[in-house]
Design brief:
Elements lengths: L1 H21 L29 H5 L14 H15 L6 H21 L4 H31 L6 H6 L1 H34 L7 H14 L3 H22 L12 H14 L1 H6 L5
Helix pairs in contact: 1-3, 1-4, 3-4, 4-5, 4-10, 5-7, 5-8, 7-8, 8-9, 8-10, 9-10
Bound molecules: zinc ion.
Length: about 280
């Protein structure tokens, strides 16, 4: 199962590379064959096997011999590992489906310093839809169980507050997640306004809302905490290495993505252990 998820991740990563290349240029994602970005030669299926083609061709184009960017195997490997590790997470589907948005956001923000709405908005729709479906599924299951409990207490319980209480218990986490995401959105909006967009771009504000939806309440605290921590750490290291000057900004989107994965993979352990959550 882990191996199958890893291989699936490699293939999805290969698709995400296409997304990362074409989305910022406004090209169509689905249609059009893949070409070498250097010489424009049409690539055939055996040039496009995730990871394997890169290794066999020693990182060079078969036709022009120019170097292929490390981004390709790295994105494939990262997606592979994330898919494989999702089996140890309590939110397997969420982790896999959000990778379609989070990984391209990570790379595109790193390369171009923008977070495309074309990734954030569909991400919000998919995750919100997933969470809403979970609630409806839970309430519907409870209703069916009680109704079919003929001869038992079920049909009677349906008439009482028991059903309403339990339906509310299904719905409440979604409501908390929505409210929390709105708080995150406002928090990042305030940061964005305070620093006049220098430290925090408008894209980060929208991404913060998506991060809240994916991580959920109260895990979103871990996500934001981890993103600020890694962001500060990497900024200090880059400054020490002389790669950036003080006051120069590093895109924050990639750190939000790292924070979200930290929250999804570690979850409540961090909340309870480090942040003293009950
Ligand atoms: Zn080429």
């Amino acid at each position: 199962m882990v191996v199958a998820l890893f291989l699936l991740g490699l293939c999805v990563g290969s698709f995400l590379n296409v997304l990362i290349e074409r989305l910022p240029k406004g090209q169509e994602i689905i249609r059009g064959r893949s070409c070498c970005p250097q010489c424009g030669h049409m690539l055939v299926w055996y040039d496009l096997i995730p990871l394997l083609s890169f290794v066999l061709l020693r990182g060079r184009c078969r036709y022009c011999g120019k170097k292929i960017s490390w981004q390709y195997p790295l994105v494939e490997l990262a997606t592979g590992f994330l898919f494989a590790s999702s089996i140890y997470s309590s939110s397997l589907y969420l982790l896999i489906s959000s990778s379609f948005f989070l990984i391209p956001i990570f790379v595109i923000d790193l390369k171009h310093g923008v977070i495309p709405d074309k990734l954030v908005f569909p991400g919000i729709a998919v995750v919100l839809g997933y969470r809403l479906f979970g609630v409806v599924w839970g309430v519907w299951g409870l209703y069916q169980n009680l109704k079919n409990d003929v001869g038992g207490l079920g049909p009677y319980l349906l008439q009482t507050n028991f059903f309403k209480t339990h339906a509310w218990l299904e719905f409440r986490p979604l409501l908390m997640t929505l409210l929390g995401s709105l708080v995150l959105y406002s928090f990042f909006f305030i940061l964005h306004s305070l620093f006049k967009g220098r430290a925090m771009g408008g894209g980060d504000v929208k991404l913060a809302f998506l991060v809240g939806l994916i991580a959920g309440w109260p895990n979103m605290i871990v996500a934001v905490f981890a993103s600020f921590l890694t962001g500060a750490l990497v900024s200090v290291i880059l400054m020490a290495l002389g790669k950036t000057k003080f006051g120069e900004t590093v895109p924050f989107g990639p750190f939000l993505v790292v924070g979200t994965y930290t929250a999804l993979l570690s979850g409540r352990g961090v909340l309870e252990g480090c942040l003293g959550f009950p």
